[in-house]
Specification:
By secondary structure, the chain is of the alpha+beta class. The chain is built from 5 helices and 7 strands; from the N terminus they run ββαβββββαααα.
Length: about 170
């Protein structure tokens, strides 16, 4: 898609942010097209209560909310929301299937992570569709980079165990 990994193309102005009715944190606008791809079929009619916003708060059950009072929670969407899920196989790139666990494994094995560069190459080739695949409706590279930085920091704090036995 031509607008992938650029500014979100939401119906509301990109600067328009609303407070989540559950956690009161500001959420950014998402498109109706995104919602139609993200919600379970039984919630498609709720999409018409938009425009909707995405709640980024990890501990909040709300994923999408509208100014009209409509709320869509984690159980209402088709896939795990990386920002709201526990560690492990949490998605961080919805277009190419990279998970938080993959980032940590690569850093653990090599001391670095080339996943952001691989994603950037796919974006350059025109192969991403973040505006409908990523529940935030925006490019995942910021999330991937944040996970990579945490993994690199964690790796620096892990010290190899000594192979020498303590004197008796």
């Amino acid at each position: 898609m031509s607008t992938c990994c650029t500014a979100p193309q939401a119906e509301a102005s990109p600067k328009t942010r609303l407070a989540c009715p559950d956690c009161a944190k500001l959420g950014g606008p998402v498109t109706t097209l995104l919602l139609k791809h993200q919600v379970k079929p039984k919630h498609l009619q709720a999409v018409e209560d938009g425009p909707f916003h995405f709640c980024r708060t990890p501990t909040c059950e709300v994923v999408y909310f509208s100014a009209r009072g409509a709320i869509l929670k984690q159980d209402d969407v088709r896939q795990r929301i990386g920002l709201k899920a526990a560690q492990g196989s949490v998605p961080v790139c919805y277009c190419f299937g990279f998970t938080e666990q993959m980032v940590h494994e690569e850093v653990s094995a090599t001391g670095k992570c080339a996943i952001p560069q691989r994603i950037a190459a796919e974006v350059k080739a025109g192969n991403c569709a973040c505006e409908i695949r990523n529940p935030q409706g925006s490019c995942c590279l910021g999330n991937v980079t944040a996970v990579m930085k945490r993994a690199l920091a964690d790796a620096k704090h892990v010290r190899p165990s000594s192979s020498f036995a303590a004197p008796a």
